[in-house]
Write a structure and sequence with these properties.
By secondary structure, the chain is an alpha+beta fold. The chain is globular, with a radius of gyration of 28 Å.
Length: about 750
């Protein structure tokens, strides 16, 4: 009896410490592991909604819950939680394909038990039923959704089990991770071979898919062509140029076919069946012209071509119109990379991520997903470089894989001919007279690039037939559909649209004489967050009709930071560029929230006495005096809402020596007054409620994710910590300002 009481006390103590009983024998014995996992999941479930562990939003909560319920073999409730997760993830069943592998496994397990049949027979039955019930526009997404990585999930499961060796208890976070990795391995190792065969069979019934190798400019390019079997007459071709060779080629092709076009997806040099050199971005402008020429002359083509795609695929379309083929009638560049503008350097500051991406697309003939998504590895590499004080040019060697592409890009810190020849440049835009639809988002990593093309086209071509749709979307959303939650916050219902539907409605309008998409009421179509409305204006400058100048002054010394100071003063900032053990600093905005301010100076506004709508991107000028020849500015604008939560509105980074001209470096004169113009910050349109405050952070870019500019005036890529000299000292003069665009009804 005493022994039982002792065990009970031990169990209670473990629960109170958020630890659960998990026998060490389960780590080495798969039979015991199978028996223990349902019980472990049952123990973890009650803690999901505790204050300590509850996820930030309900989408993530339901994500964890349905997985734990699956492991606990509570299949009925698991399906309900999965359904709720999808509904919260995206409206209008746009996320109906999400986690479909887990759904099929759950349905098959239920079918197997209820009808006493084999798992294989049950899986075939539920797959066929699910496939037939899906909306047609979700069919193309199935291959990607079902293509779970069994090898990686097994590796992750083994790593977690290895950490449990010799232990009879497991903490909450490890238990949750173990349940999730166990489920992924269990699910996809059970269903993947069979469901991929079943899907291939269904696709064969619905589509005609061909893969060909084309000889283009003396190089081999692999192209995938997809047509719907029922469409027997020639159709317009929707072409996508794709460096991310793999299952996504089939998705892009099938998507176009589902909308009743011919889908053609060509891989870049060096990808899939090509043995040619892979030099990203460099050859699209010459290769795509020849690809368009070929597809436009095929018997399944009616001679007209449109292009679509996001990110690199968006860049490719701008490369294609540098030399415009007569058959190319329209392009729909989504979240387009602004090569040399926002990637691999943003406003002339190179980013560490560029090396991670280069290896992602060049490690093999497809994409190295395991390496690219290995956050621990890449964080370690970037941190190692940062700690070493070595030149940014040494980053590829530190990664263990020297890269000629990385080095070549670093040789062009200004927007010079190397970048200019890849896409239209200045007067080239005047010759682009086909209709264009651009989509991007307020949270899109390539917003600056997407808007660069849009602005340049309208600048050099006064009759440009070019529309823009921009809303509360991130890089993925603005090339797919509007997720319900972005950055942990819900977006307005009116913004939850299908970007896919919009793109192909545009193609129907241009290539088939259909109706113009309803959302395109003017050249600029933007969603004003927190108002549940779209607005439509003729050009970007009309997104706002007023402004607020936020001056760099302490609110304690002025009646309003929005009033120009009567006398000049400055805020001094010192940054030791040698310091690699710097502790992060934070600005406490309320009991609920604080903002990281490392290497920044914070300026807080007074409480707003009325609602304002920020609409556009902030501009302005920094009046500074610096003791070095150069530095990289880092600017953040936040809203502090009445309830004490912070919301990032916009950011800006720039190399001071390129701020006036991104093609020509103009070094600063140490300890002399200088003006640094603020251009190319991120666009935002959002109602900021009365009772809010604005918080402006200005400072110096110094972290492992970007080059470090030591201010010597030499090539920043070659500078090392030895070039840092004395600490960087900046005088931020109070007549510096950030001009916030405001829309007034």
């Amino acid at each position: 009896m005493k022994f039982k009481i002792l065990l009970a006390l031990i169990f209670v103590n473990l629960i109170q410490a958020q630890k659960f009983y998990f026998p060490k024998t389960a780590v080495t014995d798969s039979v015991i592991l199978e028996k223990q996992m349902p019980g472990l999941a049952q123990q973890v479930i009650p803690h999901l909604q505790s204050a300590k562990y509850k996820p930030e939003n309900t989408v993530d909560l339901m994500d964890n819950l349905f997985r734990l319920q699956m492991v606990a073999q509570d299949y009925k409730n698991s399906l309900a939680s999965l359904s709720e997760n999808r509904n919260l993830f995206a409206d209008n069943n746009m996320g109906g394909y999400r986690y479909i592998g887990f759904e099929l496994y759950t349905l098959a397990k239920t079918e197997q038990k209820e009808n006493n049949i084999s798992f294989s027979s049950a899986l075939q039955k539920v797959f066929n039923q699910k496939y037939e019930s899906l909306p047609e526009n979700l069919i193309p997404r199935l291959e990607l959704a079902l293509n779970g990585d069994v090898k990686e999930s097994r590796k992750l499961l083994k790593n977690l089990l290895d950490k449990q060796k010799g232990k009879d208890s497991i903490d909450y976070r490890t238990a949750l991770a173990l349940c999730k990795s166990y489920l992924s391995y269990k699910t996809y190792s059970s269903i993947k071979p069979q469901v991929m065969q079943l899907l291939a069979s269904k696709d064969k019934e619905k589509f005609i898919t061909e893969t060909k190798d084309l000889k283009i400019n003396g190089n081999t390019l692999t192209i995938t062509i997809v047509r719907k079997k029922e469409n027997t007459s020639p159709l317009p071709v929707i072409l996508t140029n794709n460096i991310y060779a793999g299952p996504i080629d089939n998705f892009l092709g099938k998507r176009a076919a589902t909308y009743n076009y011919v889908g053609a997806v060509v891989n870049t040099r060096g990808k899939r069946n090509s043995n040619d050199a892979n030099n990203p971005f460099e050859h699209e402008s010459e290769d795509i012209y020849e690809v368009i020429d070929w597809v436009s002359k095929q018997p399944w083509s009616n001679g007209t071509v449109g292009m679509v795609g996001g990110s690199y695929l968006g860049f490719s379309q701008w490369a294609a119109v540098k030399k415009l083929h007569p058959a190319l009638k329209t392009i729909v560049p989504q979240v387009a990379v602004g090569i040399g503008i926002d990637y691999p350097a943003q406003n002339n500051v190179f980013m560490s991520y560029m090396l991670q991406w280069i290896q992602y697309v060049t490690n093999n003939k497809f994409t190295d997903e395991a390496d690219f998504t290995n956050a621990v590895k890449w964080d370690s590499i970037f941190s190692k470089w940062y700690k070493s004080g070595k030149s940014f040019r040494s980053l590829d060697k530190i990664s263990g894989k020297p890269s000629k592409i990385f080095q070549r890009w670093l040789d062009h810190p200004g927007y010079d001919e190397y970048w200019q020849k890849m896409v239209p440049y200045k007067e080239d835009f005047s010759k682009i007279n086909i209709p264009i639809l651009t989509t991007t988002g307020y949270y899109d990593d390539d917003q600056i690039g997407a808007l660069y093309y849009f602005k340049q086209h309208h600048l050099y071509n006064k009759n440009a037939d070019h529309y823009l749709v921009i809303g509360p979307y991130n890089h993925g959303g603005a090339q797919n559909f509007g997720f319900t939650y972005v950055n942990g916050n819900p977006i307005d219902p009116v913004a939850r649209i299908s970007i896919d539907d919009l793109a192909f409605s545009w193609f129907d309008y241009i290539l088939k004489g259909g109706k113009k998409p309803e959302i395109l009421k003017d050249r600029i179509n933007f969603q004003v967050m927190n108002t549940n409305t779209w607005k439509h204006v003729a050009d970007l400058n009309k997104m706002h009709n007023s402004s607020l100048k936020f001056y760099l002054q302490d609110k304690k010394n002025t009646s309003s930071v929005f009033s120009k100071p009567e006398s000049q003063s400055f805020t001094r900032q010192t940054v030791d560029l040698k310091n690699r053990d710097q502790k992060d600093t934070y600005y406490k905005v309320s009991k609920k929230d604080s903002i990281k301010t490392t290497n920044s100076v914070a300026f807080e506004s007074e409480v707003l006495d009325r609602d304002i709508i920020m609409s556009g991107n902030f501009s302005g000028v920094f009046n500074v005096s610096v003791n070095k020849k150069d530095f990289d500015t880092d600017t953040y604008l936040y809203q502090i809402s009445p309830d004490g939560k912070s919301y990032l509105l916009s950011t800006h980074i720039v190399r001071a020596s390129y701020a006036k001209d991104n093609e020509k470096r103009q070094l600063l004169k140490p300890n002399k007054a200088e003006q640094i113009p603020i251009n190319n910050s991120y666009v935002m349109s959002k109602k900021i409620e009365k009772g809010s405050k604005l918080l402006l952070l200005v400072g110096v870019n110094k972290n492992p994710n970007w080059q470090i500019n030591y201010g010597s005036g030499n090539d920043v890529s070659d500078e090392t910590i030895k070039d840092s000299g004395e600490p960087l000292e900046i005088k931020w003069y109070n007549d510096s300002y950030v001009e916030i665009p405001v829309y007034k009804d």
